[in-house]
User: Fold these one by one.
Assistant:
Number 1:
Amino acid sequence: MKENYKSNQQDTFTVAGTNIDAVKRANERSGMSYNEVKELLAKTTGGRGTWIYSDTNVEEVKRKNQQAMQRDE
């Protein structure tokens, strides 16, 4: 497959011969990373261990829950 990027002479290769720059270019076009997918799923569906992605204000939720409980009494 021929690429329309800079010449291979300027690219960086591993000892095994892998073209590092070509891999990086392909990765840029490949879509979301594993961690980006995890974050999207956590924000849209919830689940275990997703609190690190949450933008919920915990103190505000506690306050609203307390207010709701006081109204119900």
Number 2:
Amino acid sequence: MGCFNCYGDSSVKKPVKKRNNNNNNNQCKGDDRAQPITDALNVSPQNGVKDESKVLVNQSAVEKDADASKRPSADGETNAIKARKFTFAELVTATENFKADYFLGEGGFGKVYKGHLQDSDQIVAIKQLDRNGCQGIREFVVEVLTLSMADHPNLVKLIGYCAEGDQRLLVYEYMLLGSLEENLHDPRPNKEPLDWNTRMKIAAGAANGLEYLHDKMKPPVIYRDLKCSNILLGEGYHPKLSDFGLAKVGPSGDQTHVSTRVMGTYGYCAPDYAMTGQLTFKSDIYSFGVVLLEIITGRKAIDETREGAAKNLVAWARPMFKDRKKIYKMADPALNGQYPVRGLYQSLAIAAMCVQEQPNMRPLIADVVTALNYLASQTYDPQNPSNPKSTEPSAHMFKGDNKQEPFIGN
């Protein structure tokens, strides 16, 4: 299991505090921000300072690109940053002075409130960063710069920000159905669990958002905080990646990685990154594989209620990848058997490749997108489970004999 045994209990994040209320319990996540994973590396304060300088260098690159976006393009149009600058008074009004009834969730770096912008009559989510937080300002800057340059249907839209005095707030589009974590692990009473088609749609959409960050943004970005609580769901369960405070500009030219202080969430962090501090695009691929396993199995990345290796989703799953007879046991019991058998094999094959211990064995995000787009396009009909269209495997996603064994690597 690589580095998982190296983590001490102190690296596990505290549970997110949430408050349920009649009006707002559908909304986006309680913001369970990632914490430094230092137990495995014994990062010293001096190392931390050095790494912060690298963060600033990367931010300078982002700022330079943002400035370039304001200049006229070849067709004469100006690609100005779209994020709006709000006054603190405007956001106080939008939340009725951060009224308790509008409170949506709380994490390590701030509280999230539902808000109503008076001038545009728009419902939004407003995150107020904790003024006493040690990393809030840096995350605030990175988030504004990253989302100001981003434009993709699978990334949450940053509407604006407020930087007034010691106040730092971010204003996002409101995501009606909350986070993937809430829908998978904490469903509302009398709410049906996510069906197979919806799960594949969410997985494919999240992969498309990650592909945009890796392959289409300039400069390319490593997300570094991919997890179920950071995938928000809009109308029709349309997924969008959120929270880019830990994002880093990826390696360029002859560089193979970015050396940085290890940051991430226990259970999602790639073992190679946790042990070496060398961050690559394949670090995100590992995290995506964990998310995909959660979507398929309905289990949490880390579940302290379970015993032994079963606490860690990847540790539990790896031996089962190799036993065809146990594949069925990996499907979420909440699905009640309503899934295409071949689709289950294929999705687990993708997840198995993503969570390979060796980063060079993990696929590129473009290949993951191709495979998941295929699965999402194969609508499963529980009334007609033998429909060839919903169960016919895509041969390029598998390796082995005619029985189409899932590819499990070495």
